[in-house]
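Hi U.,

Before I forget, here's the chain from the pilot set. I'm dumping it here mostly so it's searchable later in email.
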Amino acid sequence: MNSNLEKLLIIDFGSQFTQLIGRKLRELNVFSEIIPYQNLSNKTLENYNPKAIILSGGPSSVLGKKFPLPPSNLFDLGIPVLGICYGLQVMMKLLGGKVDSGSGTSEFGRAILKKTGINSEIINDLFIRGIEQVWMSHGDHVSEISKGFEAIASSEGAPFAIIANDHKKLYGVQFHPEVYHTKNGLKFLNNFLLISGFSKNWSMGSFKEEKINVLKNQIGNKQVICALSGGVDSSVTATLIHKAIGNKLTCIYVDHGLMRLNESEEIIHMFKNNFKLNLIYADERDYFLKSLKGVSDPEMKRKIIGNLFIEVFTKYSEEIGDIEYLAQGTLYPDVIESVSFTGGPSETIKSHHNVGGLPKKMKLKLVEPLRELFKDEVRQLGFELGLPKEFIGRHPFPGPGLAIRCPGEVTSYKINILRKADAIFIDQIKKYNLYDKIWQAFVVLLPVRSVGVMGDGRTYDFVCSLRAVTSVDGMTADFYPFNNDFLGETSNKIINEVKGINRVTYDITSKPPGTIEWE
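Structure:
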């Protein structure tokens, strides 16, 4: 990163919430980087030259014989430090305080903090009503604070829930300010940033320019390939790398014949014509559909499609030749558990990093320019790069495409019917300005036919089910509560305009017990 960029270093001790600290700091326009404690020595910490440091929480206990430690020169640097949960406890352990464990002091979940009567800059604009609701997750607790520190606030199970040494700008909290249920956690973190003197000038625009420079320096004159699916992650990855190295990037788009209406054409047009990106269009529609003939089992469909992707992508990449890097749209949550997070923008490809299971013999180095970002930040970056809103805000789409929205055997006839019905459903959602309120919406073509009456004549056609869900992360989901007018109008349009469907249903199953996709 640019040496002039104000940097906040987060030392990660393995907390499940560590990535949320980085996320909150980005919201406050401060650049931060998470580095696992194992990767830091005294020298690397000095070379990093952070403006401030946050010590994360973690599952370990400083009461054990061996426990995670920050570099020994941490408190000699003269910079502000904030310890969170385990970070507070290890700070006290190193500076002469005391940590204990015992019944009655563990806290998990919501807790109420009360001021001790001592003020500190770290609680500016907090405790307006005398208390603060926070989120705790600790078994051990600080029982004695180090010399120079004062107790600022306490909870029922943590007598030293907030401590401060304003003179040395060292602070500690037993709670987690980074989580949603700590009501004023963002305000607390902002106080730490102000104490640390951050100008708060980080933006996604500055990230874009900085990342382009990093990619230029790391890749040099080498060739890069990128598997382009048209989804937001791969689209932003491809566009960002193209800004950095131009024609040294080659993208491969595999059309498996299971995309939505006009989707392949839109993807090709945007990247080949608008962005002038070097794109190989692999038209493998017949090959995929032929391989799926007679297959009804959903797991078998997924395996066949996954293996075909590997085969096709490998074939085209080998035809290019002299490729050294493989670009992948890996996001921050995908890599946070890896101690190799700061290994740079590229590292030798590993089997679990393979895109679709690429063969190890390719010996490619992996480029993951989005590995510091969250999903919504990737969308933000997409806007900075000039990607159209309709691409950035797209609903998730499964790799096997429409094949898993067509229970039973997949045929081109059934896929064409499904494609048309799906397009009408999505158009209706956009017409009613509901698209951005819904996590995912699609049509499923059921493997059953029903009797109907159209124009006084008997029909015997397919039944389809509409599916629309709300969600935050896709782990749980609930059906979207369309009103009857919407459902009636959409049903009529599908039946009137799509030959082959004579009955429409709406799926009101939540997840769990159901899944979002039918297969």
